[in-house]
Amino acid sequence: MANSGQELREDAQKAAARFGTPLYMIHLSRLKSDYERFCSAFRAHWKNTEVSYSVKTNYLPAIVHAMHAMGAKIEIVSHMELHLALKTGIPGKDIIFNGPCKMDEALEHAVRNEVAVINADSTDELQRIGLAGKKRGKKVTAGLRIATPETWQKFGVPIQHAAAAIQQAAASPYIDIRGIHAHIGANVNPAIYATVLEKILDLLHALHGQGIALEFIDMGGGYPVPGLGRWGNPFKNLMVSILAVNFQKLKMGKIAKAISRFQNYDAEFKPPPAIETYGEAMGQTLRQKTKEYGLPPPKLILEPGRYVVSGAVSLLTRVLEIKEHEKKWVMVDAGTNLAGSAETQAHHVANVSSESPGTENVILAGPLCHGGDILSNSADIAPVSPGDIILIQDVGAYNISQSRQFITPRAGAVMVRENGEMEEVRRRENFDDVLILDSPFFDKRAGA
Ligand SMILES: Cc1ncc(COP(=O)(O)O)c(C=O)c1O
Known about the structure:
Radius of gyration: 24 Å
CATH architecture of the largest domain: Alpha-Beta Barrel
Number of domains: 2
CATH topology of the largest domain: TIM Barrel
CATH superfamily of the largest domain: Alanine racemase
CATH class of the largest domain: Alpha Beta
Number of strands: 18
Number of helices: 14
Largest sheet: 9 strands, mixed
Bound molecules: pyridoxal-5'-phosphate
C-alpha cells in the first residue's frame, strides 16, 4: 500500500525532529507496493518472469536487503557491488553479474561465490569467464549481452555477431551458456522493448536450429517513472506507441521501428505510460514469436531500478534562509549533491511544517557554493519560514548511489517500517568520515 500524503507529512516531521536533516526517508510499504505492481504487470502476460533489482539504482544495503526479502533477485554491475551484495547477506545463487569491464579478479570472486549467472559484455570477457571457470575446475553459468541499433552502443556484442560468440562459448568445457542479456537504455518506450525482444527471439530461433537451446532472455531495466529524466508529451507517446505496436503486429517491423523512434525523451516532464503497457508488449511478443518458431518458452528476466525504488524514498531538508531576488529563494540544507538538479529531475516538493492551504511559487536552492545548486526553479509550496521542513519526494533512484561529498558531507537515511517504526539505516557522514581516506597524510604528520 502506498502512503497517503498526510502520513508522509507526519513521518517527515517525526523523522526530521528525531534524526535531523538532511535525511533520506525510505517507506518500506511503498517499496513493496511498487515492486509487487511491477511483478504483476509482467507475470500477468508471461508467467515465467523473474525480477532482479538493479543495485546501482540505489545500493543502500537496507534497500538491497529489503528487495531480496521481498523475493527479488539482485543485479550487480561492478566488483564493488558484488562485495556489497555478499556483505548484505545475498547468496551468490540470487545474484546476476552484469556490466562492462569486469576484471579477472571480479570474475573469480563471482565464480567462487557461485553467482547465478555472469552476463558477458564482450567476446573477450566470455573467454575470461571460461578461464575463471577453468581455474576453479567448474562450468560457469553465463549469458551474453547483445547490442542492437535501439540499445546503448557502449555495451554488449552486436546482435549479428552473437550467434558465433555463443557457438564458441557452447563449445567451452568451462562455460554453460544459458541466455541473452539486453539493456536498452533509460525511460524506454514499450514498442522499443518489443522490437528488441523480437530480434532476440530471432536469434534464439537461429541458435535452436543449430542445436543450442537458450533458457533465458534478460531485458534489463529502463522502465520509466515520473519526474526522473525527461519523458515526452503523453498524447504523442500514446499515438506513437499504438501505431508502432500495430505495425509490429502486421509484421511490418521496419515501419514500427521507424515510428517508435519518435517516442522518447522530450523537453517536458510528463507522466510515462503505465507499467502494465510494458508487460503487455513483451508478453505479446514472447507468445507470438515462441509459437511461430516452436521455441520452448524462455524465462524472462527483468532488472528494474528506477521503477521500484524511486517513489519509496524522500529527502527531508530544513529551510535555512529566505531571500528575495526577483523571485523568492528558499535556501535549504540539502543540495544537488544529494538529489538531482532542476535540470535533470522534476521534484515534487511540499512544506510539511505548514498547514496553510495557500501556496507560493519559489525557487528551492541548496547550500553548495555553486550556481547550479538548484533543486527546483518553480515549486508551489505552502508559505515558508526558516526552520520549516521541506519534503522532496521520489528521489530513490540514482540519488543516494550518486550522492557525493561536495563541500558538505552526505545525508543519513531512515527506514519507516510497515508498522510506522523508524529505523536509522545509515548515519550522516561527519567531517572526519570525509577525511578518512587522507589518513596517510594525517598519520604521517601526527607521527612526525
Ligand atoms: C544493465 C542494467 N540493468 C538495469 C538497469 C536499471 O535501469 P533503470 O533504473 O532505468 O530501470 C541499468 C541502469 O542503467 C543497467 O545498466
